[in-house]
Records
---
Amino acid sequence: MPYKSLLIFFLLPALGLAAPSHAETIIHRERSAYRDIIIFEQDDTRCMRFTRKVSARQSCLYLDGSDKLVFRYTKMMIGALYLAPKPRRILIIGLGGGTLSNTLSSLYPESIIHNVEIDGAVIKVAKKYFNFRTGEKVKVFEEDGRIFVKSAIRKGVRYDLIFLDAFDQEYIPEHLLTKEFLEEVNKILLPGGVLAANTWSTSRLYDHESVTYESVFGEYFNLRDFNRVILAKRGGLPSIDEVKRNSRALDPLLKRFDMEAAWLLPMFSTQKDWNRNARVLTDRHSPSNLLNVK
C-alpha cells in the first residue's frame, strides 16, 4: 500500500472517524484551490472535512450554541495555557473552523490573536458556518504558514503562545514538519514563550517528528491520545507543580469549554517513547524523501 494511503489508514481515527449513529446531512460542498471542503451536520454537531473518501472531521461545533469543545485534541492544545496562563500575543497556524481562535479570544479578549490559513475558502466557511470571529484584536491572514513565520522574523514580530494545527486531507504539510521550520518558529517565540503542536500518535513519522522537535526545543511535554500534542517552552519546561498550580487557577474559566485538569494533567509526560536514533526531518530529508513516497 502506498505511503499516503497507509498514512490515511492509520491516522484518520484521530480526525474523529466512527460509525455514524445517524446519516449526515451535507450543507455545503466546494472544491478550493487546495482541497475538497465539505460541511455537514450529524446528530448534534456541524463539522468540516477535507476529503470525500471517509467521514473524517477537521473541525466541529455543537449546534445548540454551547461553548463545549467537541474534540479531545483541542482540549489538549488548550492545555498549553497551563504553561502560559496569560498570553498576550497568540499565533495560530491552521484555521479549520476557528475553534482555537474563538476559544482563546473568549478567554483573553485583550490579547492579540493572529490566525494564518493558506486556503481562502476555509476562511470563508469558518466565518459562515462555524462562527469564526475576527475584529480589532483577532486577525486572519490568507497565507502559507511558513511564509508568514519567515516574514514575522524579518519584521521582528514575536509571540508568547504559538499553535501549529495545519493539516491537509492527508497530514501535516511536509514543509511544516522540518527542523528548519521549527527553528524559524522558535525565533518568533518570546522568552518563555510556549509552542503547542498537534500531530498524530499513530503516525509512521512519530519517531522522526519526536527527535525533530527535541532537536530544536529540548525536553517537552508529550500529550498522547488518538492525537499527540507537543507542548514546548522556550527556555525550558516549568515544573509539574507549576503546571498543576496554573491548571487549578484556570479550571473555573475552562469549565464552560468542558475542560477539566483532572482529565488532562495525567497526560503531561516527558517520557521519551520514541526511537532516539531516528533521523531528524529536514528540508532535505523531508518525509516523502525519507519514506520514498512516489
---
Amino acid sequence: MRVMPKLATLIVVVVASLLSAQKMTCSALVFKGQKVEITESGTTPDGVEPKGPAKICLVSSGTCFIPPNSEPQFGFSPEAKIVQLSPKQQALLFTAVASASGSGSLTLLALLDIRNGSLENLLPDVRISEQGEYKIWNEPSISRTALVVTADYLWGDGETHFSRHRFKIRTYAFGTSASRYDLRDEYLTSKKYPSLDEADKITVLEQEKAEILARLRRQK
C-alpha cells in the first residue's frame, strides 16, 4: 500500500515523539524491595539545555530525590545503580549531567538510601566536571564503609581548557555518628596529568591511589 507523503511524514513525527517519550522514564530497578523510577525532564525548545532536573522516585510512595537547583539543570543522562557500601549496607548511586551542549559539563553524584520512607542523599553536594572522575573504593583497613573519591582539574595560569592540569583530590568517608558521608581529606596533586585533549578519559585516581590511602592512614 502506498502512503501519501504528508501522511508518511506525520507518521514519522508521531513515532519519533512516542519513542522520545518512552526514553524519558526507566523503571527497571528494584532497591531494598521497592521499585525505583528515573525520569528525565526533556530539553528546552531549542534542544540545548534540560528544561528541568531529572528525578528518581520510589514508585510505591511517589517520594523523589531531585538534584539541587543549577544553571543549567542536572537533567541529562540520569542513571542509577546499586552499590555495596559494606557487607550489610547498600545504596543507590545516582548521577545526572548539567550541560548547555558546550564543551563543559557537570555531573552530580548522589548516594541514596531509603530513610523514613524517602530517598535521602548520604553525600554532601558532590559535582565533578567533564574533566573529572570518581571511584568507590572498598578499603577495610581504613574504613568499614566504602570510600567515595573524586578528582577534578584545577585550571592554572597559562593553561588552556584541555592542557595538562593539576587535580584536586577529595575523599569522602562514612561518619558513624551522623550516618552520612563527609569530606575526610583533600589535596592538590603535585604533578600535572593529561586532560581530554591527550587522553580518552581521565585516569588520575588510580595513579594517585597510594598517596590517597597513605594520607588517610596518617589521620587514623
---
Amino acid sequence: MASTGDFEITTQVLPNGGALVKVNGELDLATTRQLEDALSSSASTGALVVDLTSCTFLDSSAIRILARTARLEGEGMSLVACDPSILRILEIAGVDTLVHLHSTLEAAL
C-alpha cells in the first residue's frame, strides 16, 4: 500500500492469480510514480484490473502510465471507472481502445 496525503493505492492478488490495483485520490505528477510502482509489482500471468472508481483526477502523466501498461498487458488489462470526467479523459486519450473498460468492479472481475 502506498499513500501521499489523501492519495492511496492498494493492491491485492485475485483468486485467478491476477492483480487488482485500486486508486483513491488524484493521479498527477506527484503520485504517478506510486501508480507505476504498483502496476509494475502487480505484473502477473493473470488479469490486471485497475480500479479508478475512487480516482478524482487524471493528468497526462497518469494517462501515459496507464496507456503504456495497457500496451504491455494487452487483453489482460481492465480499467474500472464510472466518473464521467475520468471516462472522458480516458476516451480522449484513446486508452479506452487499449483495454477493457467497465463501470463496476464486479463487471471487471
